[in-house]
Amino acid sequence: VQLQASGGGLVQPGGSLRLSCAASGFSLESYAIGWFRQTPGKEREGVSCVGNVGRTYYVDSVKGRFTISRDNAKNTVYLQMNSLKPEDTAVYYCAIDEDRCGSPLWPVLPWDSWGQGTQVTVSS
């Protein structure tokens, strides 16, 4: 099981980035996928997740700005991030689990497997 997150970078406030989480060695189709972020000295924060039937969830701080989607044919999940703010700066991680996304506690529950992070920096 391997998850590869990519797409991070440096962007100005108000800009956009699209993160990708590609899976290898297994199919993402039957899993829920979550995106999380972490900054130094802070707890890891759940950002968004998508269930295996496509239902999506977002934390309040990113609602209306971020969109999570899955492309099962490409075995990849995306996080489109628009109207980025400096407070979105963090290392972003993707994770999978069979059914975490269906719980209202999904941001704080343990997830099965994690990818390496990709750095997102929002700065002028």
Gross geometry: globular
Roughly how much helix do the residues carry, as a percent range? under 10%
Low-confidence stretches: none
Please report the total strand number as a whole number.
11
Please describe the biggest sheet, giving its number of strands, its sense, and whether it closes into a barrel.
7 strands, mixed
Radius of gyration: 13 Å
SSE string: EEEEEEEEEEE
If helices are DSSP runs of H or I spanning 4 or more residues, what is the number of helices? 0
| Integer average pLDDT | 94
Work out the oligomeric state of the chains in this entry: single chain
Distance between the termini: 37 Å
Strand content: over 45%
Decide which structural class fits the backbone: mainly beta
What brief labels describe this structure?
globular; 7-stranded mixed sheet; 0% helix; 4-stranded antiparallel sheet; 124 residues; 11 strands; mainly beta
Give a brief outline of the structure.
It is built from no helices and 11 strands. The mean pLDDT is 94.
Could you characterize the architecture of this molecule?
By secondary structure, the protein is mainly beta. It has no helices and eleven strands. The strands form two sheets. Strands 2, 4, 5, 6, 9, 10 and 11 form a seven-stranded mixed β-sheet that branches. The chain has a four-stranded antiparallel β-sheet with strand order 1-3-8-7, with no helix packed on it. The N and C termini lie far apart (37 Å).
Task: Compile the SSE list and pairings.
Elements (H helix, E strand, L loop, with lengths): L1 E5 L2 E3 L5 E8 L7 E7 L6 E6 L5 E3 L7 E6 L4 E6 L8 E8 L15 E2 L3 E5 L2
Parallel strand pairs: 2-11
Antiparallel strand pairs: 1-3, 3-8, 4-5, 4-9, 5-6, 7-8, 9-10, 9-11
